[in-house]
Amino acid sequence: MWIAPEEVALKNALKLWVTDRSNEYFLLQHRRGHGDTGGKITGLLVGALDTVLDSNARVAPFRIVLHVPGSQVSWVIASGATIEEVQKHWKWLDQNLLPYMAVFENKEDAASFVQGKVKGLIAEEVLGGQAAREDDPARFREDLARFEQRFGLPQREKLVTHYSCCCWKGHVPRQGSLYLTTNHIAFYSFLLGKEVKLLVPWAEVMRLERVSVGLLTDVIRVHTRRKQRDFSMFLNVDEVMRVMCQLADIALRRLLDSGGLTLDQSLQDSTNITKRVLEEQALRQYVLSLFGLPRAERLQEVMSCSVWTPHARCHTPGTVYTTDGYLCFSSREEGHCTLIIPLTEILSIEKAESTSALPNPVIISVRCKRAFQLIELLHRDELVENVRHRLRDLHWKQNLIWGHEQRKKSTISSTPYYTFCYDTVQSDEEDSSAIISDKALRHTVHTDLVSTFHPSQSDAPNKTSNTEQVRERLWEEHFTEFGRGVHMFRTDKIRKLVALGIPESLRGELWLNFSDACSSLAAHPSYYADLLEKCRGESSIATEEIERDLHRSLPEHPAFQNETGISALRRVLTAYAFRNPAIGYCQSMNILASVLLLYAKEEEAFWLLVTVCERMLPDYFNRRVIGVCFTISLQPEHLSENRKKTADVSLSQQDLSELYDLFKVTLLNSLRLHLHSQISYL
Questions:
Q1: Number of DSSP helices (H) and strands (E) in the chain, helices first
Q2: Crossing angle for the helix pair 589-599 and 673-681, nearest 10 degrees?
Q3: Could you give the CA distance from residue 347 to residue 330 in angstroms, rounded to a whole number?
Q4: What is the pLDDT of residues 286-335, one digit of tens each?
């Protein structure tokens, strides 16, 4: 391949290069140990040295040198992994450039002409090849040429990156290069005249893990169906492990092609997958997982900052993340303090006057007259302008959805709130209830079923009542200190309160806030009503399955011994089946929806069901039970301990699906009523 002209000294003491062909301006050379056929010890040592060297210091074994007669300076203009590749370039030079070199009176001008032509050829190759998307196109072109020559895979095989490492065969390490592509793990080594090639499809990889072998730590072990391979001596083992896990995950999703395992849009086309894209995708997945955001959210800005935390009476350092629909904050100590603000809740974002005590402050005002202060934002202007732009687009769309006759002149308040405290008035419910038309939802239940139907009390009603009162008091104290609503400060204290139990009177509200189903409800005010109108009178396999399971849903609770509860459950399940026909209806959805209906309004229960099935547990509620298979695979020790007690049984996917359905229904139906809600929020 053509390379950017690089100065070299032809006279070297080591005599590492041997000239095969030459003319007035060009030399074709090979490196000792690669083109020799005599098997001399010098050639073997040079070839071994090239393999042991780090990939960045390694050179191609064949090259073409531009040499000006009488000059002490020469330039390498082409290199290749095979003699055939450089001979093709030699032929092109001989036919297209050499005949025109005679017109130059000054030989240095001729050399400059050749260098400019080679740079033009490189630019054309980069624009039309995989290297155009890489951070270092020239270096990537060299690595790609070596990979293609060594493994001869189809052109559609996309090389993502490569690393210098050792592959262990028994107790013998072989130094070489590990190539990671969209479909394979490839390893190449050439040591003392012996060539080693390994090619493992991602589809055959069963497990990736980091282990310690003897004195070696940070060994990456690749398990396949037949054997295992150990790779070590990486410069950055964390990066290698992350990239390998990402590529294995992409291959798995393509193989399964499941609705719950759909690939991100940026990864749909394998030719777009680069190391930089994988790094961006890893950060995006981390943010979505950290804050529990919808999978469709795109990461926009990431900036270091500090947020004023009233409960701690100080500014807490951390990182602010913005997406299409959210502004989130996580403290430097992960899990210590997090904050999630949907853009639908933001009224304004303003820059305040910067002082030595409060550098680059930003005030974010939300509904209920609450405000958040961010300081130490390095790119404050960029953040404010981008969030304002998204707010304008969001508010414009909301005005269209909500049917306003005319758009307000400005939805951004010019006067920010500086009251950094929280009230406990839940006016959000008033705003959302005003949006929903009573006429649109005239056939639905507008209250939770527990408020209407009271199940029989336990044997110790006083003890239960006292426990509920204690829980309510603890949560009220927490709201006073940390705020109430979806944008409350979330700390370790919340986890402890949830572990103690959420009181019945607050379950619907907190489920909506913690799952962020309230944002989906606010963003689609008439969606549920429209969906019910569309599916009214429709019949399908899903509706037949729903009808069979309606009277099996918490049959001991009075709410589901009554047509009011049964009808609400039917509407929620049918609406979801029509919303997501790829899943439709799965066993145990009826149990989940019935528990949600006990503590949330009908429309809220629908959006909670959507959130659980599509965002929180997308791989469990489908017909391929991918999440179940993964969960079972996490228990190899348990299975191995009981292997002697059980027969070796091989289950098909259909058998596994039916077995899991039976397990879910049997388990949930055998539990007492109060344990259903305990499982739901834990």
A1: 22, 20
A2: 90
A3: 22
A4: 999 889 888 889 999 999 999 999 988 999 999 999 999 999 999 998 77
At residue 479, the 3 state secondary structure works out as helix
Query: Could you tell me if 615 and 631 are in contact, meaning their C-beta atoms sit under 8 angstroms apart?
Result: no
216 backbone dihedrals φ, ψ, rounded to 5°: -90, 130
Is-contact 173 232, C-beta < 8 A? yes
Q: Angle at CA 425, nearest 5°, toward 419 and 428?
A: 95
pLDDT digits (tens, 9 = 90+) for 78-96: 888 778 888 888 888 887 7
Report pLDDT for 384.
94
End-to-end CA distance of the chain: 59
| Residue-range domains of the chain with CATH | 2-128 (no CATH), 154-259 (2.30.29.30), 304-421 (2.30.29.30), 449-681 (1.10.8.270)
Claim: this prediction has a pTM higher than 0.85 = no
**How many angstroms separate the CA atoms of 10 and 16, rounded?**
10
Question: For tokens 């130059």, what's the residue?
Answer: 104
Percent over 70 (pLDDT), the chain? 73
Looking at residue 25, its amino acid is: Y
What is the arrangement of strands in the sheet containing 184-191, beginning at the earlier edge strand? 194-201, 184-191, 172-181, 159-169, 228-232, 216-224, 205-213
